[in-house]
Every structure is written in C-alpha cells, then in structure tokens.
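Before a colleague's protein record goes any further, I have to sign it off. Thanks in advance; the entry in question is below:
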Amino acid sequence: MFASLQQRLTHSRRWTAHRGIAILASAGLAAVLAPAGAAASARPAAPPAKPYFSVAENYTIRYYPRFMTDFQQSLSGVNRIAGPNRVGPLYGFVVSINVDTLYASFYLDLSQGPQIFTIPKTDVTYSLLTLDVFGDVFQTNIQSQTPGTYGLVPDGWKGTLPPGVTRITVPYPVTTWIIRADKYSSTNQNQIDQATAFRASLRLASLPAYEQDPSAGATKILPQAEFALRMKAIADDTVRFRTTNFFRVLQAALRSPATAPLSKSDLQLSREFNRLFAAANRAAQHGNPGPLSQMIQGARAAHAMIIHTWLSHTDPNHWIYFSNFANWHTAYLDRAAGNEYIQYGNNASAAGYYNAFTDGSGAPLNGAKVPAYRLTFSKNQIPQAGRFWSLTAYLPRGNTLVPNAARKYEVAKFTPGLVTNPDGSITIYLQAAPPSAALRPNWLPVPRGPFDVLLRVYGPEGNTSPGAKYVPPKIQP
C-alpha cells in the first residue's frame, strides 16, 4: 500500500506541487504552511444568499471526504496491502487510528483488471471493512470470518477466474479495504502473535501475478514513520488557508473515473461549481476579487459547519454519537463531519463510536486546567460488546495518540489487570501523572493541555446495540 518513506515524501512534494497545495513534508511529518490553531467550533452567521458563496459551501460539504481519500490514495498507491509495524503518537495518516487491532489495508483499483485477495484460516477475530471513496460502507459477498481466495472484479467483467477462486463483484472502480485483527479475544486472551501471523498471511495480487505465483502479494509491514503525515491537519489547513488549492484538488479528483459513486445531483453540483469557479477566477484576473472571495468564504463557512455538526451532536452527558455512521447516503454534512474526526469508521452494527471533547458539565477537556478526570461506568453502564470496548485519548490537532513515557494509549475490556470496584463498576483515570500502582491498569494518560477521548465498542450488543441509545457516563473533573 505504501512506498518507502523517501519515495512517499518525494511523491508528496510532486503531488502537492502539481495540485497547488503548500505543504512541507519533512522527517515523515506534514506541516501545512499556514498558521496553527483550533478550527472554529461555532457556525458563523450566514451571509445573504449568493450563488458563489452557497455553491462553494455545498461543494465543500459534499466532497470534503474525497479531498482526504484522494490525497491518501495519491500518496499510498493502489493494490498493495500493507500495515504499520506499530501504532503510536507518530501515526497520523488515518484520523483517530485505534490501537486495539492490527491493521492491514489497501486501496483497490480495478481499472487494470481483477485482483486476487486471499484470506487465510484463523481463530483470531477480525473484521473486513469495505468503503467507497466518501466513507460509505458497501457490502460484498465475503462472509464474516470466512477464509478463502476471492477474485475481486469490476462490474460487468466477463473473464474467467482460476479454479478455487470465488468471484466478488465490486461496485466501484476504486474502494478502500481494511482488515482489523483483534489483539485480544472476546474472553480477553492475548492473541497478538496469532493476529500478527494472520495479517502476514493476507495476500493481494493481480490476476496474472496470482496465476504465476499464488503466494504473491504478501502484506507489507512498514515502519510507523511511513504513516506519519497528519491527514486531519492537512485537510483543515488547506480548506482554511489555501482554499483555492483545496478547490483545485477536488476538481481534479471529481474529473477522475476513480471517484464513484456520483449521482445526477453530484454531477450537477460539480458542473455548477466549475462554471462559477472559472468565472470567479476570470473576474479576479480583471481586478474584481469579489466572486472568488465569496467562494473562499463559502468553503470556510462549510468547514466551520462541519466542525460544529460534530461537536454539537451530543447526548445529555456530552458524548458525540452518530447512529448513521458509514451509512451516510445523502447526509452530506454528517458524512463530512464523520470523516473529519473518525476516518474509515464502521457502521453502527459493527462498531459504536462515542467521542467527548468536554467533561460532564460541558467544560473543554484540558489537562493543564484540570490535573485529573474520572470516568466511572456503573455495573450496568459497562459497554456490552461481542468483541471489545476501549477508551483512547487524542490530541485534537490531528486526532493523534497522546505521547507518554508509559506508551499507554488505551484502557479496554481486555486491559491486563483491569480493576473493578467492589460494586462492579469500573473507574478510568484520565490524567497526565500516573495514579497509584494498583490503579495503573485503569490509567489513561492525557496531555497537560486540550484533548478528546473516544470510546469504541466493537461488536455492539445488549446495552450498546444499535437502537439501544446507549449513553456513556459523564466525565468528572
């Protein structure tokens, strides 16, 4: 999936120069050449309706996820299965990465013909997530926990697959495939070695390569530094500070046959945007910057709306949850917000995501102002999960993991030595300094500054099942 680090950095410079984005890539990290700072969290007052403003606003909301996936696919390449050797604070390529599973993933491009995907037999619990370029789940006929050799073919392909290869028709020319192998079993048994072996045995090869060697296309395990570009920061800064370049990236992406599905409404919006953007640029060249300024303002207003949509979508205890995650369909604003904060997420039947930026009173989480927080699940509030639940802390700038000397990034159902209180409740300690030794398993290190936390429930059931309206407890200072 990824070339070498040096190749990636070289390619990223060429890509950004070609697309017009001013990004400096150095030592595996991306720093956008724009001022840092928190993005606006409140929706600005809407100006009078103007076609330049409103079309740019709608265009940004609808295609914001494609800016992100187009950037990632351009740097990563296609039809190469890969995963990081470890995940820590350096990792930033996928927004809100988890540390509960071992990852392998690939961007599938069927424009040159079928790809053969081999899943080995294993006792490890794993999931296969298949998404279109906007982050919506699409279904395949690959059954859960079912090993096999699968021929991934484009719709309408008339060729013949080798014996023993099961045909799987993929509805779109370019898609995202993610395999997550659980590090611990549902009974909390360490299965990291088995998950590692399973990931290494996955295969993806072109049909000719497979016919020549059925073992071709093994998973590439790459250094964490290969995944260090901070996608969220790149997207935030480009739309806010290099807005016309953001537009040009999207225009190029939408011209590509790789961007699908596109509805009649999608194509109409794209054509209208292209017409107005061309007119605005002509006007600017003749001394009238007004129309282009309106389009820039529209995109920035859209970005503020995306952020506001996520941060304001809270339950009574100030947790964010979207029941339509990865089944966005035409909920474009929800879709953009979901990609902004939890990229490549599962739908609600596979996983529940509960995100908090504030404590139970609504005050922003900040380890510099509050040295210690507590999150206590009563016995009946402990998330019920067929696979696992976990709590992870992130730095808001890129939604990356919190650096800490203990290299501890989560508290989970499977955490060795997890302490249960005498009444059956579980308390998690969110603080920079470690608690007493007896409580260390329940400690989630947070920074001495702003942070957010994400509660994941993989295999939601019982009190967290879709439709159960689970509300996590308040975070208490």
In short: The chain has a mean pLDDT of 92. Residues 51-76 form the longest helix (26 residues).
